[in-house]
Protein 1
Amino acid sequence: MYRSILAALLMGIVPLPATPPQSTSAPLAQVQIAPPVSRLSIAERLSASGVIVLDLQGGQQIYGKQTDVERPMASLTKLMTALLIVENHSLDVWVKIPSGADKVDGSKAYLPEGEQFTVGDLLSALLLPSANDAAYTLALYHSGSITAFVDAMNARAEALGLKGTHYANPSGIDSSQQWSTPQDVAWLAAFALRNPAIRSRMGKRGDRIVSREGTPIHFTHTHALMHAATPIEAGKTGTTEAAKQCLVSLVKTNGREYLVVLLHSLQRYTDMSIILDDLKKQPVL
């Protein structure tokens, strides 16, 4: 019951406060969650070990596979990083790229040290090419240190009721102290996508940002299926040795929106194509 209510909150049926209320029994008792249109049956055809497909209109799960099992989530971590930034900062403020940003592990946008980019441009670098140097820069800008930013990430996860999630860094680099579940990632993604600044960026196929000093940087979205003729409207990728291939996809088909999360996939785009084929068979509204 609690999970169904929280799902309703994150889908926007009931406004979610910034901090948990002292008592929620009265308003939550009135929540009505619509039944799903239908359910998918695709278990034997997917390589991902953790999967969830949500019907966003109804706020209901139409397919799930090990949805509560905690796993590394790679750069899907950046959804929380992005959420903290848009909730607390103006997108047009200039931020200087700090020393050490070029030394972070993993994917980078190669932001020039000492040059300035707007928060909005850094958010684009965070969400499209999944730049770890953008995550590092935004974390320091927000909190002054990576440790303090991680504390803020975990506090926000707790406030959102993400009980199967714990963060150790803002980018998604493998750590024994960083994990989530398909259910938690889906709730976080659904909540974050309600913010226009996040949704618009996750829905771009590419972008160009320019530093205050005039240095241009071009990048493309890492979600390969967004560059093809598919009903995917927004997404986020993640890949590490421990997490394998991870994927969030916002799908609009047959008049409905669906959110798909894949964790620990061996062939995420094959998995996603299988799910898309089944979603296209859902009833047209």
Note: Confidence is low (pLDDT under 50) at residues 1-37.
Protein 2
Amino acid sequence: MKKGLTNVCYRFFSNLSNPTRLAALERLMTKPMSVSELAETLGQEQSMISHNLKPLLQCNIITIHKEGKRHIYTANKETLAPIYTAIENHAQKFCPTGGKCLKEEKP
């Protein structure tokens, strides 16, 4: 890895460490969607989804385009697909407990 990427990596992975953002990205990897479609699919308020999409847009992890009055969000598959593949490979090869070793935070 190149020197000096610490801040870039931190910001990138910080954007991905949010459960709502990850859930939205998972849906957007299957097809482009509007905020209202994402909100309905995820069972969350539209304002919460919009709030969580903003940092992803700022880092170009997702893109946006207009279709009439609707804003359609699309996942940056060029960036995300290799990351998801690496995570899947890691989980299969190095996570013998299927992720059960990860502790869930208690509210």
Note: The domain at 6-94 is CATH 1.10.10.10 (Arc Repressor Mutant, subunit A).
Protein 3
Amino acid sequence: MNNQRSLFFNVDWMIVVTFLALCIIGWFNIHAAVYNAEKPSIFNLDTNYGKQLLFIVSALVLGFIILLLDSKFFNAISPILYGITALLLVLVLIIGRNVGGNQAWIPIGSFRLQPSEFAKFATCLLLARYLSSNNIKIQDTQTKIVSGIILLIPMGLIMLQPDAGSALTFTSLIFVLYREGLSGYFLIIEGLSILLFVLTVLYSKFYVLAGVISLAILLIYLFRKNRQSVIKIGLLLLFSICFTFSVDFAYNHVLKAHQKDRIDVILGKINDPKGLGYNLNQSKIAIGSGGLWGKGYLKGTQTKYDFVPEQSTDFIFCTIGEEWGFAGCFVVIGLYVFLLIRIIIIAERQRSSFTRIYGYGVASIIFFHFFINIGMTIGLIPVIGIPLPFISYGGSSLWSFTILLFILLKLDSNRMGII
């Protein structure tokens, strides 16, 4: 009994309260987004908002069960969980249900299981187990290769669905590798890749290459007396040339028409507010129309008349912006920022390298979803379709984020006894 009291006493209750606040905010805004006047009760289980209540309750049960388990269990079972999710990702390609062009769901009665959501915490666990093993150093080439394989397996399987949004989530785990000592050059390469991608889409690849080569020549001249710098600049130039040609090929021959259209709308190549840019345009109208304090609960006109598609899932932030205004958006963003800061504090206070690495994985995944989801609703990021953690409608999403977060809470609650 004393052990159980100690267990719950050591749990970081600030994170638990923040988690509950986000879940409740999500529940009420899902009610607003898909409100049915014939079934007005928020507790009506025949509606999505009623089902979300069941998802929240079951998520709390999952969280409670996780807190009762032994902390060492998660390290030991990580390869098994990773293998199971990988098998589910293969299975969904065979028997999965196609929704919106993505074959990402396995039907189980009236419920649809999305394996890609559960692959996130399984990958975080296995990556933490590997990097915290004895004699593993991130500077070693073998460590980088194995870490890359751990990330690329789920990414590749998810891309086959194809679900680019969920696949890109795993790229956020590079911050975990960086925290563990990965050279800052890899972050430079990632930033350079984003810049080259945008420039190659906007302009001819030949103009981009001309600019890159000119810059490289200038830098080589400036650092000509430093052989190592010249070699690094030369390698970056080679990477830039190969990457630019790859982007040009992928954009013109690999991406589907609707994926290219989404990118073109965001980058301003296409201005079609009533066609290709409809979702984004309506999203910005909904958020902007909320003003400072919002139109009030269940009073959002954009929300009420279904102007914004997928408003209870990918575009749930529109409902918050319209009905709760800037103040509501500020509160929600503040809760996420607080949650992320708290997770990093927890990660940094660990004696266990496994828990620290896993904690940074949790922060990276949640930050990526938070940043991309809100960014796409206000037009800063291409619409790639990923849920807002703990707020968007969906059982798979809520359960996976709950498991992701509560495993960290469990590991942290026993931090004094784990090395």
Note: The two ends are 24 Å apart (CA to CA).
Protein 4
Amino acid sequence: MVFSFSPRRSARRLCAALLVAGCAAALAACGFHLRGPQALAFSTLHVNLSPYSELGITLRRQLAMSGSTAVEENPERAEARLQILANERTREILSLTAAGKVREYELVQRIRFRLVDRDGADLIAPTNLIARREYTFSDEQILGKEQEEALLYRDMEADLVRQLMRRLATWRRP
């Protein structure tokens, strides 16, 4: 084997390495960082959901990941209380086939919540959060479509919990 040294090729490699290093340094210098958990303005929070419901489990997990707020099971000892006023799931028909069978559904999940202090005064007034997903339906694949619907509902619920956590994180003491 014969190895040849090419000054032109080495210069190109050096320029490419310097360009990559320069881009990495510029990206690091701009202050870019991944969004992590956001600290909440209260140290304890009571959630009026069952710790065994899907929404209750997901919400408690997100609160634990915030690092600054603990879930308090006794509402009198909590600094703030998160009240889930409604959690509704609906399925609406979007379109039909020529034979009158359902072709598409729209799944909608609504959560209505409010945040109150120890005295019952509103910190965040009653607020609606809505998530929507569409999917096609087929009678030949009924089991698969049921699983797809359940997966879409789980995805919507996770999305709504993230929205709720962002709303809680934006509240600051007056």
Note: The chain has three helices and five strands.
